[in-house]
Amino acid sequence: MTETKQPEQSEHTPVSFWKKGWVQNTLWILGAIVLYLAARPFMQGDVIHGQVPNIQTTSITGKPVNIQDYHGKPVLIQFWATWCPICAYEREGIERVAEKYNVINIATQSGSNKELLAFAKQNGMNPNLIVNDKDGNLMKTFGARAVPATFIVDKTGQIRFVEVGFSTSMGLKARLWYLK
Asked: What is the pLDDT along the chain (180 residues), one digit of tens a residue?
């Protein structure tokens, strides 16, 4: 029986352009960017601009929260949810922003006040800043369809910046500093 010899593969066999690692990685990144940009209009929903709605409610600790109390100062209004993985990633940064700037944290569709108090304690959050939007009505008032949704309001009560999706604490601080 005679053996058929296979031609030896050279170590330097040229790789097709489309099979090169950097090309495939670049295509994956470009694809992810295109998908993100395609989804962005849906995520933004019909977010409002202009005058901020009149928020008069209480925090989960019973502290009054009134948007009029922030007249003359910029304020960040953050919609988030306990079940949102992006919100979890962003949570610590929002707490850092709240150390220096005015923040209203609005937990939407995330359970009872008691559950949110436990969540705040477990995650090192200031419960005095958290408003429970149990049924999502506040979020609907602002026109957001996804969380996290961030609205930055200037000294006169005008919404100046809107971001749906992840935001860095440094970017949020820079916008609030700009509006001081």
From this structure: 555 655 555 566 677 777 778 888 888 888 887 876 676 656 566 888 899 999 999 999 999 999 999 999 999 999 999 999 999 999 999 999 999 999 999 999 999 999 999 999 999 999 999 999 999 999 999 999 899 999 999 999 999 999 998 899 999 999 999 998
164 touches 47 (CB < 8 A): yes
φ, ψ at 13 (rounded to 5°):
-65, 130
Count of helix runs (H) and strand runs (E) in the chain: 5, 8
Q: Tell me the DSSP string of 137-150.
A: HHHHHHT--SSSEE
Please check whether residue 92 is in contact with residue 120, taking contact to mean a CB–CB distance below 8 angstroms: no
Q: How far apart are CA 117 and CA 172, in angstroms?
A: 25
Helix (H, G, I), strand (E, B) or coil at 75: strand
What span, in angstroms and rounded, lies between the C-alpha atoms of 53 and 133?
Answer: 15
Strand-pair partners of 58: 64
The one-letter code for the residue type at 30 is L
The C-alpha atoms of residue 110 and residue 26 are separated, in whole angstroms, by 38
